[in-house]
Amino acid sequence: MSQLQVLKILFKERYKDPTLQLMIPTMIVGYIFIPAFLEKGDFQPYSLVISFIPVISLSETIAFSLALRNIIFVLGDHLTNGSIVSFLMMPVKRITFFFYSYFLDVVLPYLFWVVTNYFYLADIGYINSLTNLLSITYTAGYFFSTSVILFLTLLLKSNGASTLASIFALGSIFLVGGFGNYSLIQSNSPALSITSFMNPYPIILAYSFKPFPALLSFIYDGIAVDFSLALILFLISLFLFIRIEV
Question: How far apart are CA 140 and CA 130, in angstroms?
């Protein structure tokens, strides 16, 4: 069995019909929320930000949900029932298997999103500094969130426990960060540079009203922290996977 055959087996397991046939068209249709939120005049930047917030943005939600499904209910399921052993006996190194899984579980849904996102934005003529900032923000949050889920899945080795832990951890970070950052914006606190990674969208909303350089700096601070934490958790997850006992 070649490495390409191993990759094909993993791909078919995660993307059985009609997953792709339903996901990609739904992603494209989901972009209807962008023009639905757009208004002419000064309200336009604020509306654009609203249309890009996860959960409101259907395409972002689909990409993240697919990654979560792949990590917890495919890879995690193999860890829970012990069937990961048969996969680790395939003729590929563990580190290679991990990167194959990560690409299919996390990177591929993201690529579906980024291609459809920029295709749609180019089609409606809305590729600008604000949409680029929103896309980078989602990218940082996506890889941070999926790294948290992957870490918890490999650590707990239980579908139920990793699902609850992931929802609690990410929900707490997003909600607490949202309310916290809103309060810090009101008080013009420099602590935003520390907390902005938890939920940068209130800061971006504020920036869309009044584009102060300080706010933009806080946003990029949060993006940098998200990417850094994502990389750290990714490396820890790689270590945990390599050390799995079979």
Answer: 15
